[in-house]
Amino acid sequence: TLAVAGGTEKPPGGGIALSFKVDDVPAAIARAAKGGAIVGQEAAEGLHEIRGGGKNRAGHVVCFYAPKAK
């Protein structure tokens, strides 16, 4: 899926953001941190999803998300 963000939805610092749908957001963030990523946001619940992420070793914004349980 390719998503185009509006002007107010730019990733921190500009550039690109990689988003990954996962089953377990906290576990994905922990794996990324173990691999050298910098966590910018722990898993947080929004209106429709749980999301969190940070920056990978190359400095790109990486987001993990999962649908909220119904």
Strand order of the largest sheet: 1-4-3-2
What helical percentage do the residues reach? Answer: 10-25%
Average the pLDDT over all residues and give the rounded result. Answer: 85
In N-to-C order, the SSE pattern is: EHEEE
Number of strands: 4
Structural category: mainly beta
Strand proportion: 35-45%
The general outline is flat
Number of helical segments with 4 or more residues = 1
| Structural Rg | 12 Å
Question: Which stretches are poorly predicted, pLDDT < 50 over at least 5 residues?
Answer: none
3D structure, described in words:
This protein has 70 residues and is mainly β. It is built from one helix and four strands. It has one helix at residues 25-34, and strands spanning 17-21, 38-45, 49-55, 61-67. Strands 1-4-3-2 form a four-stranded mixed beta sheet, with helices on one face. The relative contact order is 0.27.
